[in-house]
Write a structure and sequence with these properties.
By secondary structure, the chain is of the alpha+beta class. The protein has helices spanning 3-19, 39-57, 63-77, 125-132; strands at residues 80-86, 94-100, 104-108, 114-124, 153-162, 178-184, 190-192.
Length: 193
């Protein structure tokens, strides 16, 4: 019987409709109380919200699909998450992706605060090359290697954890509060750091 699947879809849809009834327009950045209420600041926050909403509503951002996937995971398993990524494309600056607990390992510090996540993904070699460029090529690739013909799946881990080289106030990538590392699960080959 498909009753459970239908019920899951209906419940997910109803909850999503209640929480995000206006889609991205449900979201709003508000001025902190310590920022003066001037016409310039008001104009700045209006422009900021317009820009963020436009990015969230862009079709390639996948916000609606991601919210739907995330709600289904929440209803089914009680835990899920949404990743927000910037791909560097000014025409479509945001990309959303839903993460299930089935492919995540979450680590906590001694107080129970989440301070690390390990996300596993399985990609074809072609997808690896699209995402990581030359680093996605297999180590033993020949000169005539064609990733379109390679259907081998590769397990990839994206590790996000506290950065042991953190320097407060620094904007250098290697000194931020958290480090991000992508590597092939089996070989440990670094894809992005």
């Amino acid at each position: 019987s498909s009753r459970a699947t239908i019920a899951l879809d209906k419940l997910s849809s109803a909850l999503l409709g209640m929480l995000w009834k206006n889609g991205a327009r449900t979201f709003q950045l508000r001025k902190p109380s310590y920022v003066k209420d001037t016409p310039e600041n008001k104009a700045f926050y209006e422009k900021l919200n317009t820009t963020v909403i436009k990015a969230m509503e862009h079709p390639s951002a996948r916000l609606t699909t991601t919210l739907n996937e995330d709600m289904r995971e929440q209803v089914s398993f009680g835990v899920s998450g949404i990743g927000v990524f910037w791909d560097g494309d000014p025409s479509a600056p945001l990309r959303y992706k839903s993460y299930s607990v089935r492919n995540c390992t979450i680590i906590e510090d001694e107080t129970g605060r989440i301070d690390g996540v390990f996300i596993e993904d399985s990609l074809t070699r072609r997808q690896l090359i699209q995402r990581y460029g030359e680093r996605g090529m297999p180590s033993n690739a020949q000169a005539n290697y064609d990733p379109l013909l390679d259907t081998t799946k590769v397990d990839v881990v994206h590790e996000i954890k506290p950065n042991k080289y953190f320097v407060p106030g620094s904007l250098a990538a290697n000194q931020l509060p958290y480090s991000s590392l992508h590597y092939e699960k089996g070989s440990g080959k670094i894809l992005r750091d």
